[in-house]
Amino acid sequence: SAPGRFADYFVICGLDTETGLEPDELSGENFEQTPLRRTFKSKVLARYPENVEWNPFDQDAVGMLCMPKGLAFKTQADSREPQFHSFIITREDGSRTFGFSLTFFEEVTSKQICSAMQTLYHMHNAEYDILHTPPTNDKDSCSSTGDCNGTSVSKLQRFNSYDISRDTLYVSKCICLITPMSFMKACKKVLEQLHQAVTSPQPPPLPLESYIYNILYEVPLPPAGRSLKFSGVYGPIICQRPSTSELPLFDFPVKEVFELLGVENVVQLFTCALLEFQILLYSQ
User: Fold this and answer.
1) Which residues are in the UDENN domain (predicted)?
2) Which one, out of 27, 52, 120, 122, has a CA that is 20 to 30 A from the CA of 158?
């Protein structure tokens, strides 16, 4: 039986520099997009511990759900704010495991990856130029846009939005907690404080490994009807577990549902639930 830990796994997903840039087949073919807008395959880079008896690690499921859109690349000109999301893994026996992921961007230090991205842009620009440059004997096409060679150059400049000599390349990376219960707010704070510790110019009071060890091995699940307070990197983190006589744990802000769906849709959804209609939510 499970020993009642707060978290079972700490997972890191991102770019595997050994395998390089692999197109993400699950996202469909997107070769018409510029390379920075394409999605690439992410990998589970590390997990701690390696495995636990009561919650076998599903690498394929965790890897896909941590980064459902695959790897994303950006430059210094793009917004790179961290994004948080949650997911559930439901097994064949109906048991559930909860995942909480913080995705952020870090600078690509591998010269091979930067060169590969530059090569993809050269190929993309050349293909675009071949497909969209009018024939040299088409005088009307040339006269309508000015000089044909000038048009070609301007299109190259327009789509050459990554230059290895000028731009800094960033790639998405994800840190994740796999937990037996859905303590969303507490997990979000843990991950945000870990990310802050990595990006802060001042080192945290203790090595990062000690905080990860603490959350995996020393922080228990709170008993039913009780609260739990434990130390994060920069401050205390509190979570509360409802008693057996209360409604089940639901640690998600209802405000976001109204912001995403609107009042009318929420009322309609609630009505459908009361009438026991089948409900399907479709999202990009």
Assistant:
1) 24-284
2) 27
- For the chain, strand residue ranges (E) read 9-14, 43-48, 73-75, 83-90, 96-107, 169-179, 227-231, 236-240
Q: Is residue 269 part of a domain?
A: no
| pLDDT for position 1 | 54
- Are 197 and 204 within 8 A, CB to CB? yes
Nearest-angstrom CA–CA distance, 152 and 188: 48
What pLDDT digit, counting tens, does each position of 65-80 carry? 999 888 999 998 888 8
What sign has the CA pseudo-torsion 192, 103, 67, 49? negative
In one-letter notation, the amino acid at residue 180 is P
If one counts the domains in the chain, the total is 1
Collapsed DSSP state (helix, strand, coil) of residue 128: helix
pTM: 0.81
Separation between Cα atoms, residue 213 and residue 199, nearest integer Å: 20
Is residue 243 classed as helix, strand or coil in its secondary structure? coil
Query: Is residue 230 included in any domain, yes or no?
Result: yes
Q: What's the N-to-C CA distance of the chain in angstroms?
A: 38
CATH number at residue 224: 3.30.450.200
Query: Given pLDDT bands bounded at 50, 70 and 90, which one contains residue 30?
Result: low
DSSP 40: B
Q: What whole-number distance in Å separates Cα of residue 212 and Cα of residue 10?
A: 7
Inside any domain, residue 17: yes
**110 burial level (CB within 10 Å; 0-12, 13-18, 19+):** middle
List the domain range (segments joined by +) for residue 184. Answer: 7-109+162-251
Distance from C-alpha of 174 to C-alpha of 107, rounded to nearest angstrom: 14
Cα dihedral 10, 13, 17, 23 in deg (nearest 10): 160
Give CA–CA dist 38/32, Å, rounded.
Answer: 9
